[in-house]
Each structure stands twice: as C-alpha cells, then as structure tokens.
Amino acid sequence: MSPSLLRRLVAEFVGTGLLVLFGAGSVVAALELNRGRLDYAGLGIISLAFGLVVALVIYAVGTTSGAHINPAVTVALAAARRFRWAEVAPYVVAQLLGALVGGLLIVAYVGSRATDLGSVGLTALGPGVNGVQGIVAEALGTFLLVFTIMAVAVDQRAPAGWAGFLIGLAVAVEIMLIGPFSGGSVNPARSFGPYVVNQLFGGSTPWSEFYVYVVGPLVGGVAGALCYDVVARPAAAVPPVGAAVEEGMPGAETPGEPSPEPRQRPSEVPAQSRREAPTRSQSKT
User: Fold this and answer.
1) What stretch or stretches form a coiled coil here (predicted)?
2) Selection from 157, 113, 106, 139 nearest residue 214 by Cα
3) Whole-angstrom Cα distance, residue 122 to residue 175?
4) How far lies 253's CA from each of 38, 41, 268, in Å?
C-alpha cells in the first residue's frame, strides 16, 4: 500500500468516524432531551448536526481523500469514472471501520443510555414503512446527495469554496424529507456503525432492515452520478470512454513512476491529464 493511499484511507476513517459521532450522536442527544420521543423540530436539529459535520469534514480532509465518507459516494464516483475501482474496496473498509469507532465513542460518553434510549442513533424504518418504500426513500435522498456532489465538487465549472456548505445542506434537506420514513441514512457506513455497536452492547438491532441502507444508497448514488453526466454536463466536458483510466485517475501513471500528490477537489479524481494544465484552480467528503 502506497503512503499516499494510506494517508487517504486514514482521512476517510477519521472523517466517517466524526460523521457518526456527531451525526448519530445528535440522534441520541435529541432522544435524551425528549425522553425517548422525537418530533419534527428535533429531526430538524439532527439534520443540522449532520449537515454541519459533513461540511466540516469536507473542508478538513476533502483535499486529502476527497472526503467521500460514504461507500455509496465512492461507488457512485467509480461508476461515473471519477474514481479508480481498484481503490473502492480499501475506501469502503476504512469508512466502515471509522463508522464503527464513531459508534463506540457515542457509547463511551453516553453509557448504557446510548443503547437503552437511542440505540446508538441507528436508522430504522418508520411505522408502516415497508422495505421497498425504504429503499425508494434512501435512493431518492442519495440521488440528491450525489447529484449535488457532482455539481459543486466534481464539475470543474463549480465555484470554488462552496462544496462543503452546499453538500452539507443537501444532507440536511434529505434528512428533513425522508428522515421520518427511513431515518435518512443515505450512507451504508452511517447505518453500519451504530447497528454493530448497538448489537455489541445488548441493544435491539433491526438487522432485517439493514439491506435497505445498502441497496437504496447504492442505487440512488449511481443514478445521481450518471444522471448528472447525462443531463447537466455539456458533451465537451464529459471525458471520452477510457480517459478516466488512462489520464485522470491516481495510480494510472506508468509503473515505476512516483505517484504525484494532486490537490483534489472534494470527492473528485481530477479529470485532466498530468500533462495538461487544469482549466481553473482546484479547491471537500
């Protein structure tokens, strides 16, 4: 494993851990203050907490790893030829481990109430919501998230410096919309960490619903990335088939050459060749 990849994996680990700690942790805090009940105002505060921590992580490690902090984002970018498939598995493992540690930290400061009252902030289907509806909800939320990432963090025409703020807003908005129905996870790692930690500490964990938080985000994320390429980007800005592998992706250099450390835009693998000057300076998840 190259030092460059290792550093990016550590960034994904830390970023996803912070996402779960302060995002899922806000669910536990809201339930604590409302004696186990969560109204829409409380959901709004949770949405804000998730949006803010996502934005902060983007600004902190976006230029290091792209700040995916979400397996669905990593897979979607690979499907859209903005990320190397060879690095998808290491990124996903780092994200899952970070989410697990984030869940453990919630229990570390909350104690047994984290499982007794808040189930470590895990996501579950709302009353009367079936699996298909949950998948649709998660897919729609992830579509919005990845569509926004493509627009403000990947597209070279996007104004610099706004990615973290706007992607954080997208996360907050999707939770406000689908949170009452599916929990608004849009992130398999965000669901995985609290599920495992809640199970480890004796909480009741709805594992039969976990597939919703894998299938929905993956489908919605890939759809969002591909839809942006087809609808929102002009033909001249779409890399030709094979260009992402041959020119734009880290690790595509000739074997034996040292891999450079480009400053990446958030969630992005630069589309230009190292032999070409970028169209504008690069500035995130």
Assistant:
1) none
2) 139
3) 14
4) 52, 51, 18
The SS3 of residue 98 is helix
- CA distances (Å), origin 145, targets 53, 54, 199, 267, 275: 15, 11, 29, 12, 32
Given this model, what pLDDT does residue 54 score?
A: 98
Q: Which residue blocks in the chain are alpha helix, DSSP H?
A: 3-19, 25-33, 40-65, 71-79, 88-110, 113-116, 131-149, 163-182, 188-200, 212-227, 243
Q: Is residue 254 part of a domain?
A: no
User: Number of structural domains, the chain?
Assistant: 1
Residue type at 251 in one-letter notation: G
With a pLDDT cut of 90, the percent of the chain lying above it is 74
- pLDDT tens column, 104-157: 999 999 999 999 988 999 999 999 999 999 999 999 999 999 999 999 999 988
Whether 275 maps to a domain, the answer reads no
In a domain, 205, yes or no: yes
pLDDT of residue 262: 42
Distance separating alpha carbons of residues 65 and 221, to the nearest angstrom? 18
DSSP code, position 86: G
Residue 104: C-alpha distances to residues 31, 84, 170 (Å): 18, 31, 27
**Contact criterion met (CB below 8 Å) for 84 and 251:** yes
The Cα 47–Cα 196 span in angstroms is 22
Measure the CA–CA gap between 278 and 257, rounded to whole angstroms.
21
Please give the residue range of the domain that contains residue 45.
3-237
pLDDT for 232 equals: 86
- 257 in a structural domain: no
User: Residue 49 is part of a domain; what is its CATH number?
Assistant: 1.20.1080.10
- List of residues 6+ apart from 242 with CB closer than 8 A: none
